[in-house]
Amino acid sequence: MLSTRHLMSMDDLTLEDIATILDRADTHRELNATSAAAKKHGSLRGYTIVNLFLEPSTRTRTSFEIAGKRLGADVINISGSASSIVKGESLVDTALTLDAMDTDMVVVRARAAGTPQVMRRNIRGSVVNAGDGKHEHPTQALLDLHTMRTSFGHIEGLRVAIVGDIAHSRVVGSLARVLNRMGASVVVAGPPAFMPARPDVLGVEVARSIDEALAGADVVYLLRIQLERLGSLQLLPSLREYARFWGMDERRVASLAPHTILMHPGPMNRGVEVTSEVADAVASRINDQVNSGVAVRMAVMELLLANREDLPAQPVKELLNA
């Protein structure tokens, strides 16, 4: 059981909540790696989950859909272009419509920060933030924590270097603060144009170069340039220059400790923030992150809906107490 019915931000979760989610994700990841029968069960049979994705996505949308279906829920996908929002309907009216259909959970992804909070205020079911603007992406942070814990057995004491477009990334907004809460240290680095005005509010160190950030890192977390959030701004002379000064290549990998792992939230721009050789190297945990994403989102769905005392589906609690 969690202390919340919704997941808007990593700040909604206590450290005990996070441990519960990661432990439950361990179970799902193990089952997902076995047989088709083992990875699909009916703990959420009878529940209806709507994935409202008002912004394009591959990994997040697909993993939420797979997660819901493996748990036996009825999963409905609605894209921005297929919703009445393109006809001028307000978010409030969209939320009220979904609520009138007795949906049990709405998973929301949107370009505008605060969109999931609007849904939460106007729907009785649970709401999960699947990424809102530059604000937060809590399930991404959870799957990243799961990947790190699976690799090292712990989070506390790790040194995590986050490199790239820090200012426009919602990954940083969720991940940096929770790493601090869990006893890890975080250093960020990126071109001056891609650094926030007040990086200190994230509780992180700031490195002047990628090579400075890599020193002593246990985890190197690479971020892509968020071109879709820059509009017409031209903050770099060229992508080639970015790759030269801020990209992860074989030379920089050679400077890392043997145990260091490489991570990336996707989608990758090969040849920009990371070369193909590095993306496919043994140290890469990029595909492990995708794998953890399904298991973590299964855990989040189960545990949030287990808090819904007003709903009749008891198998969730029976499974969690097994």
Automatic annotation (TrEMBL):
<feature type="domain" description="Aspartate/ornithine carbamoyltransferase carbamoyl-P binding">
    <location>
        <begin position="5"/>
        <end position="149"/>
    </location>
</feature>
<dbReference type="GO" id="GO:0006207">
    <property type="term" value="P:'de novo' pyrimidine nucleobase biosynthetic process"/>
</dbReference>
<dbReference type="InterPro" id="IPR006130">
    <property type="entry name" value="Asp/Orn_carbamoylTrfase"/>
</dbReference>
<comment type="subunit">
    <text>Heterododecamer (2C3:3R2) of six catalytic PyrB chains organized as two trimers (C3), and six regulatory PyrI chains organized as three dimers (R2).</text>
</comment>
<feature type="binding site">
    <location>
        <position position="87"/>
    </location>
    <ligand>
        <name>L-aspartate</name>
    </ligand>
</feature>
<feature type="binding site">
    <location>
        <position position="140"/>
    </location>
    <ligand>
        <name>carbamoyl phosphate</name>
    </ligand>
</feature>
<dbReference type="GO" id="GO:0006520">
    <property type="term" value="P:amino acid metabolic process"/>
</dbReference>
<comment type="pathway">
    <text>Pyrimidine metabolism; UMP biosynthesis via de novo pathway; (S)-dihydroorotate from bicarbonate: step 2/3.</text>
</comment>
<dbReference type="InterPro" id="IPR006132">
    <property type="entry name" value="Asp/Orn_carbamoyltranf_P-bd"/>
</dbReference>
<feature type="binding site">
    <location>
        <position position="170"/>
    </location>
    <ligand>
        <name>L-aspartate</name>
    </ligand>
</feature>
<comment type="similarity">
    <text>Belongs to the aspartate/ornithine carbamoyltransferase superfamily. ATCase family.</text>
</comment>
<feature type="binding site">
    <location>
        <position position="109"/>
    </location>
    <ligand>
        <name>carbamoyl phosphate</name>
    </ligand>
</feature>
<dbReference type="Pfam" id="PF00185">
    <property type="entry name" value="OTCace"/>
</dbReference>
<dbReference type="InterPro" id="IPR002082">
    <property type="entry name" value="Asp_carbamoyltransf"/>
</dbReference>
<feature type="binding site">
    <location>
        <position position="224"/>
    </location>
    <ligand>
        <name>L-aspartate</name>
    </ligand>
</feature>
<dbReference type="GO" id="GO:0016597">
    <property type="term" value="F:amino acid binding"/>
</dbReference>
<comment type="function">
    <text>Catalyzes the condensation of carbamoyl phosphate and aspartate to form carbamoyl aspartate and inorganic phosphate, the committed step in the de novo pyrimidine nucleotide biosynthesis pathway.</text>
</comment>
<dbReference type="GO" id="GO:0004070">
    <property type="term" value="F:aspartate carbamoyltransferase activity"/>
</dbReference>
<dbReference type="InterPro" id="IPR006131">
    <property type="entry name" value="Asp_carbamoyltransf_Asp/Orn-bd"/>
</dbReference>
<feature type="binding site">
    <location>
        <position position="266"/>
    </location>
    <ligand>
        <name>carbamoyl phosphate</name>
    </ligand>
</feature>
<protein>
    <recommendedName>
        <fullName>Aspartate carbamoyltransferase</fullName>
        <ecNumber>2.1.3.2</ecNumber>
    </recommendedName>
</protein>
<dbReference type="Pfam" id="PF02729">
    <property type="entry name" value="OTCace_N"/>
</dbReference>
<feature type="binding site">
    <location>
        <position position="60"/>
    </location>
    <ligand>
        <name>carbamoyl phosphate</name>
    </ligand>
</feature>
<dbReference type="GO" id="GO:0044205">
    <property type="term" value="P:'de novo' UMP biosynthetic process"/>
</dbReference>
<feature type="binding site">
    <location>
        <position position="267"/>
    </location>
    <ligand>
        <name>carbamoyl phosphate</name>
    </ligand>
</feature>
<feature type="binding site">
    <location>
        <position position="137"/>
    </location>
    <ligand>
        <name>carbamoyl phosphate</name>
    </ligand>
</feature>
<keyword id="KW-0808">Transferase</keyword>
<keyword id="KW-0665">Pyrimidine biosynthesis</keyword>
<feature type="domain" description="Aspartate/ornithine carbamoyltransferase Asp/Orn-binding">
    <location>
        <begin position="156"/>
        <end position="303"/>
    </location>
</feature>
<dbReference type="GO" id="GO:0005829">
    <property type="term" value="C:cytosol"/>
</dbReference>
<feature type="binding site">
    <location>
        <position position="59"/>
    </location>
    <ligand>
        <name>carbamoyl phosphate</name>
    </ligand>
</feature>
<dbReference type="InterPro" id="IPR036901">
    <property type="entry name" value="Asp/Orn_carbamoylTrfase_sf"/>
</dbReference>
